[in-house]
Write a structure and sequence with these properties.
Mean pLDDT of chain A: 82
Distance between the termini of chain A: 43 Å
Low-confidence stretches of chain B: none
Largest sheet of chain B: 2 strands, antiparallel
Order of helices and strands of chain A: HHHHHHHH
Distance between the termini of chain B: 30 Å
Oligomer: heterodimer
Helix content of chain B: over 70%
Number of helices of chain A: 8
Strand order of the largest sheet of chain B: 1-2
Shape of chain B: globular
Number of helices of chain B: 7
Mean pLDDT of chain B: 85
Largest sheet of chain A: none
Helix content of chain A: 55-70%
Radius of gyration of chain B: 16 Å
CATH architecture of chain B: Orthogonal Bundle
Shape of chain A: flat
Radius of gyration of chain A: 23 Å
CATH class of chain B: Mainly Alpha
Strand content of chain B: under 5%
Number of domains of chain B: 1
Low-confidence stretches of chain A: none
């Protein structure tokens, strides 16, 4: 796994990049709550939300192609949920006349728009700050210390483990070339188990090394988080804009 | 199975977030510090193993391994699944940030069910592992369908469970295969 997959554009200098990660976590999470609380079937406010999100993408200097590619990854889940609405109502009993009506299209449309808007906010969050700073921000916002330590360790382990996955993939492909057929459950199960056991040993070694270097469960931080006036201005301004759209649009 | 934001009714999503936060708070107090590295590794392992995709019926499927998480971690599977889901949401946009509590409740319930089956059933080990994997997925899918129905999707949504029976069967076979491999190669893993 390439390390920059996690936060590919987070190194770019931009207005959003200069904000404290806690500011972005708080502001973007609030925006997600505001957007998804829009009444079902409402489409008009999303014109304004898309302008606000477009402005944020520009302010973050995130390439639109990158944002769209990330949206594409999550599309199967979102499209399925939007399609399931008319289908499930269709199978819920006698066919109702409004199942495929304009009203139903608006309902499905609002599901799509809410989901993609929230998704773009998450992409913006992870693309405008380093992943370890976001985790630090979450810990600073009150994430239980055990979970904070667990997530910090997980962040260190996933690269080791993913390398193991790629190694076992190569081994499997060299022994059983061609596409993995569903009938070869045993191969797949053994691969998963092998990844786990190898990773366990590898991560255990890493952890022992950390302990031998004086790791005591806390993570020394060279770069602390700092809340500036611009963070306060951003939170208040962004919250007002989103609330105005939510209430008046 | 990863529910995105804006799909389930806001009240249900917030209630699940509050419930998850409560459970995590309790676990946060109870988890011994020595277990944290093990759980961090387990979260990373679940995350990485879920990246192993394989073809099925013209599409691809990935492993969930909620049952396996339950077998290896017991009740502690919930915080591990929560952290793994947080990373999946932030890195791959699999599941929304506000729906994190919902997804954790669904999949955590699957893991806990897997643990209870593993502990309480008197069947041979491989059968218990299969059932843990099978019901781990099916219970998570059932809760997901229930949340969709409560959000106005109608009772027809429960037909989706038929599709998940196949997925659960595959997951059950794979869980049994993984457990069998552990037993042969490194049985001490069950005590770690």
């Amino acid at each position: 796994m390439k390390h920059d997959y996690l936060d590919k554009y987070s190194g770019l200098d931009s207005v959003l990049r200069r904000l404290d990660p806690r500011t972005k976590i708080f502001a973007f999470f609030s925006a997600i709550v505001i957007i998804v609380s829009e009444p079902k079937g409402e489409l008009f406010p999303f014109i304004f939300y898309s302008v606000a999100l477009g402005s944020l993408i520009m302010a973050g200097r995130i390439p639109l192609k990158f944002v769209l590619s990330r949206c594409l990854i999550a599309s199967p889940f979102i499209l399925m949920a939007a399609l399931l609405l008319p289908l499930s109502l269709l199978f819920s009993g006698p066919i109702k006349s409004d199942v495929f009506s304009v009203n139903m299209a608006a309902l499905s449309g609002s599901i799509l728009l809410k989901a993609y808007s929230a998704l773009i906010l998450v992409v913006l969050l992870t693309s405008t700050d380093k992943f370890h700073r976001l985790l630090k921000g979450l810990r600073s916002l009150g994430m239980p210390s055990v979970l904070g330590a667990m997530s910090a360790l997980m962040y260190r382990y996933i690269f080791i483990l993913n390398d193991e996955r790629l190694r076992t993939n190569r081994a499997r492909e060299s022994r059983t070339p061609g596409r993995l057929k569903i009938s070869r459950f045993k191969v797949l199960g053994h691969q998963a188990a092998m990844i786990f056991l190898r990773s366990w040993d590898r991560a255990h070694t890493v952890y022992q090394s950390m302990l031998s270097r004086g790791f005591d469960g806390s993570f020394p931080e060279f770069e602390g988080l700092a809340f500036h006036r611009r963070d306060l201005v951003f939170i208040i301004g962004f919250f007002i804009i989103m609330s105005v759209i939510r209430i008046y649009a | 199975m990863h529910i995105a934001d804006g799909i389930i009714a806001t009240e249900i999503a917030i209630a699940a977030d509050v419930f998850s936060a409560g459970v995590l708070f309790i676990f946060g107090k109870k988890i011994p510090t020595d277990d944290v590295p093990k759980m961090g590794l387990m979260a990373a392992a679940l995350f990485v193993i879920s990246l192993v995709h394989f073809p099925i019926a013209g599409t691809s499927m990935h492993l969930g391994l909620f049952g396996l998480a339950g077998i290896l971690l017991g009740w502690g599977a919930f915080p591990v699944i929560f952290i793994a889901l947080l990373f999946q949401s932030l890195i791959f946009q699999h599941g929304g940030l506000m729906s994190l509590g919902l997804n954790a409740v669904n999949m955590g319930a699957g893991a806990v069910a897997g643990y209870l089956i593993w502990k309480m059933c008197g069947f041979p080990e491989k059968v218990r592992a299969f059932l843990a994997g099978f019901f781990g997925i099916l219970i998570a899918a059932f809760l997901m369908a229930l949340e969709f129905q409560l959000s106005g999707y109608g009772k027809g949504i429960f037909y989706i469970l038929y599709a998940y029976v196949l997925v659960a069967g595959i997951e059950g076979v794979l869980t049994a295969s993984v457990i069998g491999f552990f037993r042969r190669v490194d049985p001490a893993i069950f005590k770690k």
